[in-house]
């Protein structure tokens, strides 16, 4: 029984001496093991098929798993029967005589156990079943390069434990019940080349852990149960594509979770759904952004006022639904006008309708409630008045707020189908100048109107017609009193 690194001595010294000179018949695994037969069966047959077992012990031999198993077979097959059965000695074997669950007498090394061993390069404290190691255990061994921590009961290792041994090349921490390898993130083992972590309790390998070991060339993770989902997607791809680190026996790694994949080979798992195709995401995002930009630009350019109109129609509809059963009106008429026409409203309209005829008018500068949103004030004023008088001028048509006021008034007209809107033109406006104002042209086709510019010769008739319009109640739209005797657009006389 020997390690492959000692084969030169076995073939050059031992074999010629014992076989050629002394005539003994030796069994060597590279020469006499049966091909295709399980390795452990070959070892057992060789040990039990030989009178003696020669163990060629070296440091490499002690580190070899297969050599360890050969010794174990020799102990059970040769030593134990000889000493106990034949000679009657009573032996204590750990696998047979240790009491299950009994704790080790020593749970850790003393902090100064390695004091004075400055030049120590190899340390083996495996199979000691320590529970923990003091963070300063290796303060006295700065030149340590090979460390064996196998078969202990650490469950977790403090990252500061490795701070004094930055020259570490090989680390063996198999069978230590480690829950994760995150301690390597801060261990700063930049020169570590070999890592053996067999038969532990971790199931997920995170990307930062592997990236914290830039010099790693050999990784042994046999005997661990892996989680086969997107948590290990990066590790799986790394095992396949990484060209620096050899992951020993990776093709036999098996899944333990989720249950439906238990027993499946890790490298057989398809993790393409876990990765995000950044190019495709960028393409979709850019395409969506372009489409949204074009849609917004088109809407703003061609449908801006339609959307605004629809918004205020909705406000008016909600108000109308809320106050549908409330028949009392606070005002006789709400006057919608532009600030540039205020002089005519206050100097002509207000004295005539309020002082002489006794109507109660609602004027925004006087009757709107301070602190209340402007659109709410407009809606309340229109629905709180029997009529709405729109004092139309060029300035009125160009005003945003006046446009909104006539929008809400138009909705009330169309919704209630009652004569609630009175149009008063302060100046002649040719029909071609009204073409951009679709709603105004539509109203002119259905509603009659008053023209102040034509009332110079007969102002009393103008005020009488306006009074009659204000007195009209509950008439359906289309059956109301006509206010003018002319047809056509404002500013276009019949004789023209």
Top keywords for this entry?
alpha/beta, 5-stranded parallel β-sheet, 496 residues, disordered C terminus, 6-stranded parallel β-sheet
What does this entry look like structurally?
There is one protein chain. With 496 residues, the protein is an alpha/beta fold. It has helices spanning 7-21, 29-32, 39-48, 59-63, 65-86, 94-97, 207-211, 233-241, 278-302, 304-322, 342-356, 364-367, 374-383, 394-398, 400-416, 438-446, 459-471, and strands spanning 122-124, 146-148, 170-172, 194-196, 218-220, 225-227, 246-248, 254-257, 331-336, 361-362, 385-392, 421-425, 449-451. The strands form three sheets. It has a six-stranded parallel β-sheet with strand order 1-2-3-4-5-7, with no helix packed on it. A five-stranded parallel β-sheet has the order 10-9-11-12-13, with helices on both faces. The chain is rod-shaped and about 150 Å long. Residues 476-496 have low confidence and may be disordered.
